């Protein structure tokens, strides 16, 4: 039975230099620690927000002091990572078998591989949104399956339905996360592949989405290799799995790879929002969205993110997507 893990030795890293040698004991217990100097503004909420699957996500929490807590399954095992501000630096503290990996990847998680300077606004609204959010960087988790599963759950359903499915499956088949917060680590690939059909149904997940997750879990090692690929190769690797199309691969690679050009196509709302924000058009489709965002090639996901953050959306003229709850059928 999964339980809590013993506290690990603390370390502190400043600007890439380790001030306390790894393995050296420090007082007060707690998790392993690292400090990182980002060299510019970072907004933890904007950067890490896309990793949160609804306000009650059992793998993610924001505490009153502004710290972000994240439970994750690393290649070295489960870990809980707390991320907070320490003056001009960011401090990470981690617990569990995957603590070392989580701290090593902390800079990438906070956008160290991202290049915000490569982005040049071409529209007044985008320029204003960009100027107001200097701390926006694109996260990179380096974990494909962790990003893929909740995206598949979001296919063709409302966000609320997908979030409820995610909560139920993680709490039933995941494990308690190490560390002081009551978080949960999502199931491993083998467990995803063995969830019985009736529990998918109870979680509100139809056969098409559950089959896609099972297929992906069975080739999880191959999919994880995509985290080190460029965008075209990574998308092709994911889309080789039946049930994963351009929408799913883009939403996944935005998080796992920090892919600045992974524009989401096939979305019900995004083309209309982009068209309305940039031109006032209300009925833009994917083709029109691609045309409007062509000046941002290489940075189209960042451009779309800034447009969404600007909050200029078309008036709603149709009812919301109807809710469906197959778990109650």
UniProtKB/TrEMBL annotation:
What is the protein named? 3-methyl-adenine DNA glycosylase II
The record's annotation in InterPro entries points to: Alkylbase_DNA_Glycosylase/TA, DNA_glycosylase
The protein's GO terms of the molecular function aspect are: alkylated DNA binding; DNA-3-methyladenine glycosylase activity; DNA-7-methylguanine glycosylase activity
- Top-rank taxon: Bacteria
Question: Could you tell me which PANTHER family the record lists for this protein?
Answer: DNA GLYCOSYLASE (PTHR43003:SF6), DNA-3-METHYLADENINE GLYCOSYLASE (PTHR43003)
**What are the record's GO terms for cellular component?**
cytoplasm; protein-DNA complex
Q: What GO biological process terms are annotated to this protein in UniProt? A: base-excision repair, AP site formation; DNA alkylation repair
Which residue spans traverse the membrane? none
UniProt source species: Streptomyces lavendulae subsp. lavendulae
Cite the entry's keywords alphabetically: DNA damage, DNA repair
